[in-house]
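Q: Make up one entry.
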Amino acid sequence: MALAIVVDNTKTKIDLFEKDVWKFEELGVETPITKSDYQLNFSRIEQHWLKITAKKFINLMALTRSHSALTSYVSSINYFSKTLKNHSRSNSVKDISRELVLCYMTDLKKAGLSNATRKHHVLNIKLFIELANRESWLSIKNSNIIYSEDIPRVPKSLPRFIPESVMTQLNQHINMFEPPVMRLLLVLQECGMRISELLTLKRNCLIADNDGDYFLYTNQAKMNKEHTIPITIETYNVFNEQMEYVNSIYGKSCEWLFPMELKSSSNKNNLRAGMPYKTRTIIEQINRVADTAKIIGDNGEIFHFTTHMFRHTVGTRMINNGVPQHIIQRYLGHETPVMTSTYAHIMDSTMKREFAKFKGVMVDVAGNIIDSESIARDISLGADNVDAQWLKRHISAQALPNGLCAMPVVQTCDKANACLTCGNFRTDSR
């Protein structure tokens, strides 16, 4: 029996290598439910020897790499095949050289690709050449032909947030969207989630605490971890309305919070009914409305949306409202402060306000000058970094009519309304 299984698996692999189109499921790689590309296509690789090597490479990388990584590898090899055809003498493995790599990098630049995209392609081909040589798929005299200085430098990313004037226009035309998409957009601009995480929310994604406050529970596939954030009662009501909507169509049979409807807009049966929306479907709908409603950006042209802009916008709003960066990092589920800093754009109006704050020094009731950073540390003292309560308390700042309270959030105030004589009271000239 064991021998039969081995023979069958070997035959399956042979059959796979004879095809130019591979389904991800044949490689044992899961396609994200919000993605539209279910297969890898090798037909654009013109050199037979390169195509065979590319298939061996993808077959090996599929053991440890994701759907998006494998797609990126094939794209890079497609570009490399085109360079090989246009710049080599014999179109053979003997032409793989330092000179060919330089031609490859030039072709990528001429194609108008961004530095970030070119960096991915160069690194992919570097890995491909080195692995092909190591595994003896190709005989290359010198596989060390791409150097560190060849990797395009990626300039520091600027936040791609949606200007408030554009967001206002979008919300003025929010009723132009189908009801589920309208609710999805309201959640997106409030919570700043990755679109893939929002589209794959399940109906049991909300939890409540003893105070009657609500939290959104998600699974961050990119970071492979669970994540919980506090939400407002208004956002909870949007979620609740969507749950009732799904119940009215599917009853209890659908596990997804944002499933596609039974009928398409043209009243045809929807083949993906009950499954989550595709990312592409959502962004196409948003930009269709932007075009129809003439939603204008700061440059006077129709604004082009991407779903990730909403995430940048939430981060930008939070930092301009004075939320500390480490709180934003926790709220957005970032692993490092560097990731959060990409989203954090300090607006001119905020800089002006902070300069005014600098001119008005913060003091305690005894007249001692207080560092504003120490207030944040005092407030967070004793809080549990992995507790959703911590995040809830920090986003809802402990503001007082005449200043701030520096008491740790986990402690109880025994001063009642005697703030002006309390040692935890902080204020400035404002």
In short: The longest strand covers residues 214-220. DSSP finds 16 helices and nine strands in the chain. Residues 360-427 form one domain.
